[in-house]
Here is the input.
Amino acid sequence: MRLINLNDITKLIKETVIEINYKLDGSLVSLIRKAKERETKDLSKSILDDILENQEIAKEGNIPLCQDTGVVVVFLEIGSQVTFNGDIYEAINEGVKQGYNEGYLRKSIVNHPFNRTNTLDNTPAIIHTKIIPGDKIIMKIAAKGGGSENMSKVTMLTPTEGINGVKKLVLDTIFNAGGRPCPPLIVGIGIGGNFEKSALLAKEALFRDLDDSNNDETIKQLENDLFNEINKLGVGPMGVGGVTTCLAVKINYFPMHIASLPVAINIQCHSSRHKEVIL
Ligand code: SF4
Here is the structure.
């Protein structure tokens, strides 16, 4: 067995939450630059310019990309040959606490649906755990903003609604969201599993590389079709109109019950902050 020191986990989480809140991924920046070239309206172009300038200022000045520095989500994959010297969930939350304090990131978590008292350190993180073969730990870490999360949706379609039902649901959801989730968007979609599995699939889809495609030909085609159709909706950057409503569509799927076609749409704003780390 490989013993992992939990101080290393805490340090990694602390450094990563600061880094992702200050620096937008380079491939995302490239996509925004390309989108700017495609836009024809001055206002749409200038919004994308503002987003590009904002990420430069954040990177140069070591300041957050957005006032909403998000809830920390961790997909934690633990190798079966790994053991720890304590509680890994506590170690992750300690990293969040240190990162949000030392990085001057806004603390956005409240402890109760109605009392709504701020926990003052942005904990607890939302952690999804999976056991994998081997002696490594993989952590997919995101800082997920509330505005785009609020526009996300889980729906139980019937199997007869099929691929057209999924398309209609996604297009209606993105159109009705308008500028509220701060487009251009990354759209994560989970199809299958059950109610909660579809949501996890959609969230995890947001971690995929921006230029990849699903291996399944039908799903890949659906990703391409939805990308094109979403960009014809006319929502545009920050909802001002234009041809750039989304920068990518990622669909993950899973087997499901014969009676069900669960679909989850997890909307990610342009401030897409996540990173995968391996220990
Ligand atoms: S949706 Fe994204 S860009 Fe908009 S306020 Fe929230 S975190 Fe910031």
Notes: The radius of gyration is 19 Å. The mean pLDDT is 98. Residues 147-271 form one domain. The beta strands are 2-4, 71-79, 82-84, 126-132, 137-144, 153-157, 185-193, 246-256, 261-268, 273-278.
